[in-house]
Amino acid sequence: YALVELMLVSSLLAVVLSAVLLFGEATQRLAPRDQERTHVIREAQVGLHRMTTELRKAHLVNDRGSYFMDVQVRVNGIDTRVRYECDTPHPVEPAYRRCLRFVNGGATGDLVVDRVLNAADVPPDPVFTYTTDGGGNVAYVEARVELPARGDLKSGHGHRITYADGFYPRNLGV
To answer: Which of 44, 134, 142, 144 is the most exposed place for a label (fewest CB within 10 A)?
Structure first.
C-alpha cells in the first residue's frame, strides 16, 4: 500500500513540477519584450515632458511646422534659440524618425525621443498641432508622438504607444 502511494505522489509531483517549469520558461521568454516596452514608454514620457516643459516657456515662436517647432526661451537668463525637430531619419531603421533638440542653430542635436513613427504619410500624422488666436499667433500647442511597443526588438509587442501633451506657451507676447 505504501509503495502505490509513493508512486502516485511521485507522478503527481512530476506533473506539478513540469507545470511550474513551463510557467517559468514562458516568463523568461516574455520578460525581454515587456522590459523593452517599459523602456519605450519611459523614454516617450521623459522626452515628451522635456519638450513640452521647455516649449511652454517660449517667449517667441520663430518658426513652426507639423514636425518642428523653433522658439526663443530664456535659459539661465540668456535668450536662447531652441528648435525641436521630429522628422530626422533614424540611423538604423528607415521606418523610424527621431526627435532632436538643437540650440542656437547648432549642427548636431541632442536626442530627445528615439524611434518615432509619426510621418508625413497620407494622411499626415503630425507631431505638433497648433491652435491660433484671431491674429494667427500660436495660442495652444499639442505635441504627440507614436512609438513601436517592441522598441528595438525584431519581434515583440505589435502595437503602438501614443503619448500626447498640450500646452499654452505662457510667455508669448510678454
So the answer is: 134
Sequence-distant (6+) residues with CB within 8 A of 151 are: 36, 37, 39, 40, 115
Averaged pLDDT for residues 141-170: 87
Model pTM?
0.79
Short-list 105, 118, 133, CA closest to 66: 118
17-54 burial code (b ≥16 CB/10 A, e <16): eeeeeeeeeeeeeeeebeebbeebeebbeebbebbbeb
Residue carrying the nine cell digits 519605450: 40
How far, in Å, CA of 82 to CA of 68, rounded?
A: 11
Query: Among the residues of the chain, which ranges form H helices?
Result: 2-56
Cα 61 from Cα 88, distance rounded (Å): 21
Please report the pLDDT score of residue 122 as a whole number. 57
Q: How many CA atoms lie within 13 A of 74 on its CB side?
A: 7
**Cell numbers describing residue 13:** 509531483
What pLDDT is recorded for position 174?
47
* Grid coordinates given for 78: 540668456
Q: Is 8 helix (H, G, I), strand (E, B) or coil?
A: helix
Other CB atoms within 10 A of residue 7 CB = 10
Residue 84 CB neighbour total at 10 angstroms: 25
